[in-house]
Amino acid sequence: MEKREKLYEGKAKIIYATDQPDKVIIYFKDDTTAFDGVKKEQIVGKGVINNAISSLIFEVLNKRSIPTHYIEKLSDREMLALKVEIIPVEVVVRNFAAGSFTRRYGVPEGTKLEKPLVETFWKNDELHDPLVCLEHIKLLKLAEPEDVEKMKEIALEVNEVLKAFFASKDILLVDFKLEFGKTTDGRLVLADEISPDSCRLWDAKTKKKLDKDVFRFDLGDLKEAYQELLNRLREK
């Protein structure tokens, strides 16, 4: 597999073309940001850990026949994936109250929701990723309504698989964000990454945070928290 030109660089990853037009190489950076990039830092080795965690989780999902862009982990910092056009609608699944949900609705952090809540957000940094409903998505022409419904359906399926997977490691899946894209042949697949950058993960007993909230709110050493998470996910 030959790595070619850079196609895109985001806050945490770089996407490179390959000699196969339907495949890309995703490089995980050490950059860490929060609050729409207001808080930022380079944490050496963070990209290596996130690549390992994301690859491991995608492998779990692929084994359950959930459609993803993931093909294989190539190196410490790189994974091979299908090339996709990202749909600018993020899907968030919440099992417990946390983050923006607690700020919007005043529900105490850690409150278990009666059933998983699925929310959709417009992927737009300038507007701070606003919450949108299906009518907004249709009006703004962000995605086809049938694709949004399928994204929600897949997100709930991912939730059931990952809740059980994390529970087996004594970890609570509090909430998580998913991105989706269309492959070059038009298939809808789960894309981007699934890591502690995009999930809230708490120790099931102590409620210790093992995700990016450690960085957001200066709760300790982020790399140490991510490494603990990876070690626990690797346990048999």
How would you describe this protein?
Helix content is 30%, strand content 35%. It has six helices and 14 strands. It is of the alpha+beta class and 236 residues long. The radius of gyration is 17 Å and the shape is globular. The longest helix is centred in the middle third of the chain and has 23 residues.
Summarize the structure.
Helices cover 30% and strands 35% of the residues.
- Radius of gyration, in Å, reads 17 Å
Query: Percent range for helical residues?
Result: 25-40%
Form type:
globular
**Biggest β-sheet strands, sense, barrel:** 7 strands, antiparallel
Structural class by secondary-structure content: alpha+beta
Query: What is the succession of H and E elements?
Result: EEEEEHEEEEHEEHHEEEHH
Cα(first) to Cα(last) distance is 32 Å
Beta content comes to 25-35%
Number of strands: 14
Task: Summarize the topology.
Blueprint lengths: L2 E7 L3 E6 L4 E6 L2 E4 L4 E4 L3 H18 L6 E4 L4 E5 L1 E3 L2 E8 L2 H7 L6 E11 L8 E2 L1 H6 L5 H23 L3 E13 L4 E4 L7 E5 L9 H4 L5 H13 L2
Antiparallel strand pairs: 1-2, 2-3, 3-7, 4-5, 6-7, 8-12, 9-10, 9-12, 10-11, 12-13, 12-14
